[in-house]
Design brief:
single chain; alpha/beta; five-stranded parallel sheet; 12 strands; 44% helix; globular; binds 5-amino-5-deoxy-1-O-phosphono-D-mannitol
Length: 366
Amino acid sequence: EKNGYDHFMLKEIFEQPTALRKTMTGRLDQEAKRVDFEELQWSPETIQQWNKITIVACGTAYHAGLIGKHVIEELTRIPVDVEVASEFRYRRPIIDEKTLVIVVSQSGETADTLAAMRQSQRLGANVLAITNVVGSSIAREADEVILTMAGPEIAVASTKAYTTQVLSFYLLGLYLAESKQTVTEQKYKQLIESIIELPEKIEGMLEHSQGIRWYSDSIKDAKSVFFLGRGLDHAVALEGSLKLKEISYIHSEAYAAGELKHGTLALIEEGTPVIALITQDEVSEKMLGNVKEVKARGAQVLGVAEEGNLDIWEYVDETCYIPNTPSILTPLLTVIPLQLIAYYTSLALGNDVDKPRNLAKSVTVE
Ligand code: M6R
């Protein structure tokens, strides 16, 4: 049931704070500020032997995997590859007993992801599944399972499944980092404190959800919309772009902002909407340089940045602020306005928001 919401997608967007709290339950001890996964059977020796992690998934789950790569590499220094399952399964991937393979799937039934998992197991890798559906094929066959606890997701466009997958990666990253002692106690605790605050911050953002509607109205007739970002912002840009094209049918692309000059810049013309994600402190100056480049070609730029970042005003046309949090955690906040932009744009165009054309919720055939 839609619980008074017009669409499942909107309901699921609003369920995110609760879903995220459920993901934390039993894994994150808020008093002791520790992460533990009782469901994981790995010994410290097992964790120690992995020399590589490979994340495999499709669509939005793949985008969550891109965040997972950043987070796990940053916290554990284990090299992480991320690959779409349909590519992975048809090449000869280099994995063995020393590889941890993480498959990510909301439904736990995606054919390509399931095939990639079976192939990994044949090659001797340990497979961890991050999935939302208990009893799904992937949950049953994986060696280890982290259930995201998002609750049923009905809308084809994935929202709360994504944010709970991303949160699972933060918790997993911290768990592995503690075991490998690759993070200081101080950083570990600081991150946990900030993670605990995220659901409330999202609640605060959702209270003003209507505030972004004007923006959707302004892009609904656009030929193309571009999303730009660097680092984690690039991964979120990909997700924002997928969400928009999936339900609004507007052509959209996401680019690592530094790649602009290598081709994409040619597509920017007078009035082209550009959504620039500027939440990563280390590269924010570089991002502003890229914003200048697209502005010079006539782009209309919406800058998404952290509250208090006033520097962006002189560069962008409009701003959308997210609450402050450590740079590594911003994806969970940045994605919220992007989900809402996609939702309201689809709505403004009169599309079937929950059941976009040509798409199925669960892709059980290749
Ligand atoms: O159930 P899965 O997480 O394996 O599904 C993967 C994709 O099919 C899915 O995320 C798809 O990209 C969504 N419709 C995007 O919103």
